Amino acid sequence: MSDSPYSRRRFLRDSALVSLAMPLLPRSGGATVPLSAGSAPTGAAAIHWLGKQTPDSFAGVTWGVAWPEGTVSAEKAFLLQGAARPRPLQSWPLAWWPDGTVKWSAHALGGDLPEGERLTVIPVEKTSEPAGIASETEDGWVINTGNIQARVSRKGDSLVTEIRQEGKVLLTNGRLVLRISHGEEDQTQYTETLTGQADSVVLEQNGPQRAVILLRGTHRNSNNTLIRFVVRLYWYAGQSSVRVMHTLIYDNDQPERTVSGIGLTFDAPQQAPLYDRHVRFVSDQGGIFHEAVRGLSGLRRDPGRAVVAAQLQGTAAPPLKDFTPIVAQRLEMIPAFGSYRLLQHHPDGYQIRKRTKENQAWLLSATGTRAAGVGYLGAPVGGIAFGIRNFWQSYPACLDISNAHTPLATVTLWLWSPWAEAMDMRTWHDDMGLTTYTAQREALDITYEDYEPGYDTPYGVARTSELFIELLPHTPDNDQLQKIAHRMQHPPQLVTSSETLSEAAVFGPVWAPASRFGQRYQPLREQLGWYFDFYRREVEQRKWYGFWDYGDVMHTYDSDRHVWRYDVGGFAWDNSELSTDLWLWYYFLHSGRTDVFRMAEAMTRHTGEVDVYHLGRFAPLGSRHNVRHWGDSAKQLRISTVANRRFLYYLTADERIGELMDEQIEGVRTLQRVPPGRKIGQKPASDPRYVSLYFGTDWGAVAAAWLTAWERRNDPKMRQRLLNSMQSIAAQPHGFFTGLSEMDIDTGAFRQAPKDQLFISHLSAVFGLAEICSELLQVLPDKSFSDAWLEYCRLYNDLPALSQAVGKPIKKLNLVQGHARLTAFAAWHNHDKALAKRAWQEFYSGKGGIAHPNQQQRLIRPPEVLYPVREASIDSTIDKRSGSTATTDLATNAVSQWGLTALSLMALSDSVSDK
Question: Where is the PcRGLX/YetA-like C-terminal alpha/alpha toroid domain (predicted)?
Fold first, then answer.
């Protein structure tokens, strides 16, 4: 963030932002006229539900909308137009255009589900500022959504003091718990429990539609302090639920101490008779486990059919006088099961167990493959539904109910189940004698792992999880609980249409909505879809699940073993290598597909948290691809780049993603201590004010962070810092082909490199540089920089012209196919049809990429594999002499670059032909 003085101009602007954060009701007399159903006025933005189906269950929603430059001023408020009259929105700005108009706005909506499938967001004149749903007290805050009332304390170990519904306290003492085990492996261990203690509690947002409370702290007791947390509690008007975004930051530096459980727990007062206390769990297939604490079915004596029917349905049992007398008189002889556990310790296996009370045996109640991670505890007069999103995908997880047979039950949502193996965060191999850079580079040639002792630490990585708690006035029937479970696992999300995003010119000109093309490029579009579908299926086929793994994909396939190279150095987890995240997000913008959004969302959550350091010596750098997500010694900004996070932030206004992007603003300073090219001769800058940066992988990430920070805050100092870096790159002897120099961190200006310096890397433009530069030329036009970037785009794949331009012969460069999109960008910018034709030729040549994309798969059967596996190759060529087919192992690098380039060429070349 800028440290410039807070000027009067910024004060006036920010005052307008505060007003913008409040929705506006139309003035009496009809300042805003309700629109007829289906109409879309000029200046409105079209939005729709992800999946284009109105959800069956609704608990509030937040989303982002993009606006063309110059159309929406800071003084505007917004309404949502559906089939009924317009509804006021709680709104705030996410980003600004250079002219000071709104580029991205965020909107929150509670209350009833919006009516109609065709929805629009409409800018209107502001009229009033309704009060927020949270109010401050001496001890903390009270949230009143209209359906529930909650108390949140300023300090202590209770995150949520209580939640009431209809005057009844249904939840108390909501808190975080952490279990740690002490002792080396195969030795006697002991376990202790730490409670989350909030050091900071802030009302982050408070409006009439939504309130957000932010808590930061650590887990601790008298002996230990461990695992920092960041928790956000989201409350929506008219709703009876709270959404919990939970981030743990791993800060354990003692190998003999392991994390064996982490979760959110709360107490639930119970007053109903034991036979009216109901327990529910939901399977991933929608099946429901339903029992009572004191079950009345299956007894030797029938209590009465109405009694059993009521218990099964979750309604109040008849009065005791209506029970069969022999049962009514002997209720205390029927065991009461007060504890239940839903354990998902494998993605394809769960168990439900129950017991009467502590120190009694557990009974196996049910088994299955996948649980939805949603449960319920309560009575006909009220109870609580609770769930963990991506439950089985993020195993080992558990839903735990204890003491439900007493006046105060306890429910714990375990993100890591204490009854599974503890987290094993150790390094996956010893130093193997690789103690010098020479040895490490030799090993890199064998296993592709860039190893260095001490760099394979998990200290500082993070993991974010999403949880839900909902208060209900009665025990839900099967249909209602199924809908709640589906909502918790697939939260309804409003998204701006691809066409509206394209018209707003956001995320650069390198993509276009599918609707723009009709039948043009149909084979390319089918291949794009096939590649995505293949990876979506591979996630399931290869079981790429788990607490620390879910969201990522593997790097390269091993057709000899018919597995991905999960155990071979740098060929295992992908960690955003060559812009896998960008490929998914641009494909979502193009296609609008729900499954693409969900996969990109999961990847963004993972790569932004697990693959990046948030504490310690390497923060905020990311780790290169490896067997363990944090195992590689290449700690670089190209992995932690904001370029990969901006999509989810702007589309959903997610605060945690905003924090991750803020971490990167000064990330360049860490490169002073950890030069990315230290093993190939890159030296730290001699002047502590400077840092040595590559113009591609390093500066591309810096530019993404600074561009995003500038547009989010409209900060002129950040703009100047970015512009200085751009202009000083352009001023280098060979522009981008100079390769690297030392940058003044505070000003952004690079020193002049020697005149004969050339450093041309095939990796420079494939980690988001191409995409970010396409936006820089749009929002921060500078002739010198534009000329330098367009020269790089035009010459990279033209070796004779490049050699002539730099005055020395340039050898063969890699990734020709991926760089075809740079050629296409230069063609688009200069309206050069000949250059556009060359871009297509480079793309179809397949050099350094995929020459013959195909959709062929073969079925591999046991005993070659453990279970039948469908295997694909990335490329296939037919030998003209023998007629045999040669295949190349699938590599995510190549697929990602092929996908990004295909999307760019369609959008850019199509624009050239249209001009």
Answer: 491-910
